[in-house]
Amino acid sequence: MSARVEIHGEVESGFGPVADAFRRNFSQHGEIGAAVAVYDGDRPVVDLWAGYRDRRRTKAWERDTMAPVWSSTKGMTGFVVAAAVSRGLLEYEAPVVKYWPEFGAHGKESITVRQLLDHQAGLAALDRPVRLKDMGDLDGLARILADQKPLWRPGTRQGYHPITAGLYHGELIRRVDPEHRTLGRVFAEDFAGPLGLDFYIGLPEEVSMGRVAELSATEGLDVLRYERDLPVRIGIQLFAKRGLSFQALNSPQVGAPARAARREFLAVESPAAGGVGTARSLARVYGAAAGATGELPIDRDVLARLASAETADDVPAEDLVLLTPSRYHLGFRKSRGSFRFGSDKRAYGTTGYGGSFGFADPATGLGFGYVMNRLGMAVLDDVRSRNLRAALLRCR
Question: Which of 19, 227, 269, 354 could form a disulfide with 184 if both were Cys (CB 3.0 to 4.6 A apart)?
Answer without folding.
Answer: 269
